[in-house]
Amino acid sequence: MTRFRRPIAVLVAALLLAAACATLTTKVTSDPRADFSKFRTFTITGDRLQTAEQAWLSDEIATRLQAHGLSRVPENASLRVEPRLFRQATAGESTWGYSWWSGNATGESSHDVPAGTLVVDLVDPARNQLVWRGLAKGTVPAIGALQKGKVEVALDRLFADFPPKTPAK
Description:
Blueprint: H1 5-22, E1 25-30, E2 41-44, H2 52-67, E3 71-72, E4 79-86, E5 90-94, E6 109-113, E7 117-124, E8 129-137, H3 148-158
Parallel strand pairs: 2-3, 2-4
Antiparallel strand pairs: 1-8, 4-7, 5-6, 7-8
Helix pairs in contact: 2-3
């Protein structure tokens, strides 16, 4: 009887993870004019005074960017990473992000962000312009600890085709 417990437990865990990921949707957009070959280093905003969750998320994002050849540095990076977790839905006008491709970091933007969304923005600090955005909906619980397996799957999907291909001129 005991030899069947482990396979059943593994099967149940796999089914639970698959069910959790079933509601996960991801979308990546990037500035078609951005030259991603010039980005060699990155820094992640909010590195100071982070919660354990935010520090873990920063490390997970850093791991994926490092896998694509970028190096994490504390300052003067060629790329700034701005992750955000939305546990509650937000709607309307706010200054949470960049005006798309305008380079206006303080401008207001209209948006509806459902609860459970992870947003990762990559900003060219030389121009203060958004060059890449990854959205993962259905990622973050409204309360409680992050579902790390689900966030890892979302980040894997977001960074699967990073850096974006530069269109032929």
